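2024-03-11 09:14:02 INFO queue: dequeued item hydroxymethylpyrimidine kinase, len=280
2024-03-11 09:14:02 INFO validating residues
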Amino acid sequence: MESIGNNPPIILTFAALDPSGTGGLQADIETAASLGCHCAPVATTLVAEGVNSNAESHAVSSTLLISQARSVLENMNVATIKLGFLGSVANVEAVHTILRDYASIPVVAHPTLYIWDKMDEQQSGLADALFTLIFPLVKVGIFSVYEARVVSRQSDTIATTAQAIAGTGCEYTLITGTGEDQPNFRNSSYSQKGLVEHYNWEQEPPTCHGTSTTLTMSTAAYLAHSGDPLVAIQQAQNFTWQTIRAARPLGYATHTPHRFFWADKNIESCDKIPTKTKNH
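2024-03-11 09:14:37 INFO prediction written
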């Protein structure tokens, strides 16, 4: 969907509120703005602590989630929808209904299972609900190897895992960190016909909190601009690569992707940002 006049493309995002501001909604807003888009954020979950996969979290009510989303969709020209952590099975069901009603808007989704609490009554069936209700309606699904295997219930090869996800109807799948047996860090994209491309990196930057969010939102942003999923996947990886090469230690004993690296006067050239050799 093209933007109207001089307006930037609008991206509706569903994600958790991370109080550290390094992931979740804050990361979505920064990434969208950096790439010339406007982010309309819908809070799905309130998280008690930033950068903590075991932090207490509380999903917003599905009624409130629907009200937030429909307010945006009825009053703004949304170009793409980005999905992060949805917080509860009830919220997955609510988002499913919204996506069905706005089927013409392309969706980019990441399950964000690193903050999934399997023992929480509201979240216990989250992975299955995503597989059956969300990914059949997704244009581009983005997963770590772990997330792809959990959601698809396939623990064999990466290819069979991707095939299971594609079998839901998800048009394109990007699985990160697929180069465990390779000398280079690698991501891999798949269509419903099979492997599209391996993306190999000679070196890798520090591990950062908010990397997956940055990758997912930047894919949604480039998709809003170009309309081409494979172009968006390629460009989003390049952008994310630069943000984590320029990452800053803002707190929580980790690094945060620098999503406005291109505007930082302290960085003379992104080519001069140090990287390190592969370590996984």
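2024-03-11 09:14:37 INFO annotate: Confidence is low (pLDDT under 50) at residues 273-280.
2024-03-11 09:14:38 INFO item closed
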